[in-house]
Amino acid sequence: MKVKNISLFLWSAAVMAISFVVGVNYTLAQSGLSMQPLPNQSNPKVINEAVMVANAIPVNNQVVDHPLRAVVRWAENERPKVALINDYTAVMTKQECVGGVVQAAQMMEVKVRHKPFSVYVKFIYPKAMVGQEAIFVAGKYNNKVVGHGVGVQRAFGTMKLDPAGMIAMRGNKYPITEMGILNLIDKLLEVGKRDIKFGECVVNYYEGVKVDGRVCTMIEVTHPTPRINFIFNIARIYVDKELNIPIRYESYDWPKKEGSPVTLIEAYTYQKLKLNVGLTDLDFDPQNPAYNYPNE
Questions:
Q1: Which domains does the chain have, with CATH numbers?
Q2: Biggest CA pair distance of the chain
Q3: Contact yes or no for 216/48 (Cβ under 8 A)
Q4: pLDDT tens-digit profile of 31-56?
Q5: Of the candidates 205, 199, 250, 204, the residue with the CA atom closest to the CA atom of residue 225
């Protein structure tokens, strides 16, 4: 296999976790996928009192329940179960704000294996990226992303890139090494455990929200007032009711001024998710005959 390190190749490595959101519904329509609207008067909020139960913690010498504690506890309980999943395939969509600019939405076929951590990505949207592939396997290929471009970029051949390097990170918030549902749960735990130290937090639960036909409980976390402690105004976690794992995450920044809409920080969705499908080393090998890596 011919491997080159050419800085002209601007590789957009796929990341963590997931989705189309504000202003990109047209891409879902084009792809044949659909998203149901968020809860409204015809799809009312349902508070699950059992989920709201939390350990009491002291704040200002008073005993109160922090609304995030139940969410953190759920994530702590579910993480070991997700870690036991051997592998999965899905159609993943993502849209991120990078460098103050909301990037165009992307959709890709993904394969993820937990041990050793392995990722295969093939872009299916937008049109300019269709067919672009990337592979990462922890401890293999010198821990580089092995990828190739399409169109004129395909002429550069197969490339090995530092997953955290400037080229691989161009247009991305996170490296491919942080992709996947398990990494998403780890990020939720990291942020939740930090935010639980502070007040000014509202948590609501919405039942019956659908993501690509999958019935979910949507957990909405809101920090009404911008503070240096918080990284988002609103975050929504969509937990698949059958699988009990998050299949969509989205977060928004505070409005630039009063009356302005919130702005997207990041959004990710896993659709057509299939667990424990029996992926092998060949699924993470550029020489897989089913893939379209450039010939040697």
A1: 3-284 (2.50.20.10)
A2: 68
A3: no
A4: 333 333 344 334 434 333 333 333 33
A5: 199
